[in-house]
Amino acid sequence: MASDGGIFTFGDADYHGSAGAESLSSAVVAMETTASGNGYWIVTASGQVLAYGDAVLRGDASDLQLVAPVVDLARTASGNGYWLVASDGGVFTYGDAGYHGSAGAITLAQPVSGMQRTNSGNGYWLVARDGGIFTYGDAGFHGSAGATPLASAVRAMVRTGSGQGYWILTERGQILAYGDAIYG
Fold first, then answer.
1. Nearest Cα to 118, choosing from 154, 83, 68?
2. Per-domain residue ranges of the chain
3. pTM of the entire structure?
4. What is the Rg, in whole angstroms, of the alpha carbon atoms belonging to the chain?
5. Which residues contact 124 (CB under 8 A, 6 or more apart)?
6. How far is CA 129 from CA 44, 65, 133, in A?
7. How far out from the chain centre does Cα 154 lie?
8. What whole-number distance in Å separates Cα of residue 118 and Cα of residue 136?
């Protein structure tokens, strides 16, 4: 995925379309596959969501006056909805995505950079650029890097298969493991 919406496939990944030739309101910041793997959504910093393959567009935030740019999209467990999260921690729900809270009213030490849903879809984690973790709904707290000096900013997090842990990834490739996440 490129910031202009271009999609590049490798290995057994299927190509379902691209926004590379479209006029987007801002840069593409995230991509999420459908539950079947036969489609994907891409989202821009202005909250515009585009759907390809079997992904269904459930709405987007492009018509809202956002306080901060959108940084990530996470699909629901059913695949019939998704959440958008902005860098200020604001969470936007579409389709069957439930609202479980947000960090939008909290003064953050660093902006939010990513989001992951729980296995049940009844909660989610937000991760900030300093490695701080925010839990909502049934998301469990398994630790954070918020007080740990990092060589670079946190870009993303990934939950474990059990949902009882997660990995945090920095922009320079450092991986931090929490809960039942194993490193190495």
1. 83
2. 28-179
3. 0.91
4. 16
5. 74, 83, 91, 100, 115, 116, 117, 118, 136, 137, 139
6. 19, 23, 10
7. 13
8. 9
Q: What distances in angstroms separate CA 161 from CA 158, 167, 181, one per listed residue? A: 9, 11, 9
Structure tokens that stand for 81 in this block: 């909805």
Fold of 28-179: Methylamine Dehydrogenase; Chain H (2.130.10)
pLDDT of the chain along its 184 residues, tens only?
667 777 777 887 788 877 777 788 899 999 999 999 999 999 999 999 999 999 999 999 999 999 999 999 999 999 999 999 999 999 999 999 999 999 999 999 999 999 999 999 999 999 999 999 999 999 999 999 988 889 999 999 999 999 999 999 999 999 999 999 998 7
* Sequence letter at residue 167: W
